Amino acid sequence: MFGFLFVLSKFVLLINQFFKMKKILFLSAIAIATASFSNTVFAQATQTTATAAVDKKGPKIEFKNIKHDYGTIKQGADGTCTFEFKNTGKKPLIISNAQASCGCTVPEWPKQPIAPHKKAVIKVKYDTHRTGPINKSITITSNATNSPTQVLQIVGTVTQ
């Protein structure tokens, strides 16, 4: 009987220690999560403040239109359109890439920096030898502080 009571008391102590450890682990997890959240919020606030400071001094890109609608055009017609933009910032704007969503759309962009307050054009040629709906995108990558990535869109229909 004494052996049973001894084993039972050890078992109760073991369970008690288990729940204490569980409570400590739970509280530690909450503390770590709170610290991580606080650091994330602080980092985001710092990044937003830094970006706001850069926005005032860096290049900015402003497009006249970001969507061109061909309407209905005939197969084989000229599928060229242009997207006019202006550098409204205080430093030169550099377009580093213009990537179309498929090979039937070919963008041409200025390779030279665009001076502050100057306009430029991105020319897009769509292959109108394909009939059917047009819904393509062109992703522009630049050093613009207001919109480093800008998506342009062309839509319409090519008929026979």
Overview of this protein structure:
This protein is α+β, with helices and mostly antiparallel strands and 160 residues long. Helices cover 34% and strands 37% of the residues. The strands form 2 sheets. The chain has a 4-stranded antiparallel β-sheet, with no helix packed on it. It has a 4-stranded mixed β-sheet with strand order 2-8-7-4, with no helix packed on it. Strand 7 and strand 8 form a beta hairpin. The chain is elongated, with a radius of gyration of 30 Å. It starts with a helix and ends with a strand.
Topology of helices and strands:
Elements: H1 2-55, E1 61-63, E2 67-74, E3 80-87, E4 95-100, E5 105-108, E6 119-126, E7 132-142, E8 149-159
Parallel strand pairs: 2-8
Antiparallel strand pairs: 1-3, 3-6, 4-7, 5-6, 7-8
Structural class: alpha+beta
Shape: elongated
Mean pLDDT: 81
The count of strands amounts to 8
- Strand ordering within the main sheet: 1-3-6-5
Q: What's the helix-strand series?
A: HEEEEEEEE
The radius of gyration is 30 Å
Main β sheet profile: 4 strands, antiparallel
Q: How many angstroms does the end-to-end distance come to? A: 99 Å
> How many individual helices?
1
Our estimate of the beta-strand percent is 35-45%
Low-confidence stretches: 37-53
Portion in helices: 25-40%
Short recap of the structure:
Helices cover 34% and strands 37% of the residues.
Task: List the defining traits of the structure above.
single chain; 160 residues; alpha+beta; four-stranded antiparallel sheet; four-stranded mixed sheet; 1 helix; 34% helix; 37% strand
